[in-house]
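hiii, so i know i said id send this last week but things got crazy w the move. better late than never?? heres the sequnce for the chain we talked about at the cafe, plus the structure i predicted for it. fair warning i was half asleep when i ran it
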Amino acid sequence: MKENQVAKILYIIGIAQIGIGFVLGLIVGATETVIYGPNGFGQVQSGFNFSIFITWTLGGFVSGMLFIGFSEVIKLLHEINWKMKVPESGKAEGLMLDTNQKQVNVTVNWELEEAELEKIKDFYQEEEIIEIIPANIEGYCVVKLQQETGRMIRIVEVSGFGVEEINEGKTKKKIIRWYNELS
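okay and structure toks below
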């Protein structure tokens, strides 16, 4: 994954801002005062004003941390965007798993994306998945599982943030009827 250049620049600006705030605090905090005596001649006294130093240093630190925070947000958004990119070549026909049984040719109007396939595999990670078929209704899949008692068919919805198993309803009946017509 390529590093985001904007985030890198903002991070460097943030570090520089913290350093510049500290240095300016030292420079501005160092004070020189001239005290005039009764004869009219002045005497220079050097000192250090901690309140000015703290003000400049904290200002530099806060603004630097804002830049660093923005760079971290951009890095996180870049990572999320990178992970969500799916190759365009993932077609529904290519996502069927090989089985010893006959292979069902499916023609549907939508494609099962790689991210959705991974969600299904994560959801059924404890079980052996034989086949994943995109259903005739977009956002739903037929998942064929191998269990101790035999083969099971599950209908899952993948259109949300996770995988949800559909246990009842008209949608499940339509998909089962469609699947039985394929067999």
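btw The chain is about 45% helix and 20% strand. thought thatd interest u
miss u guys!!
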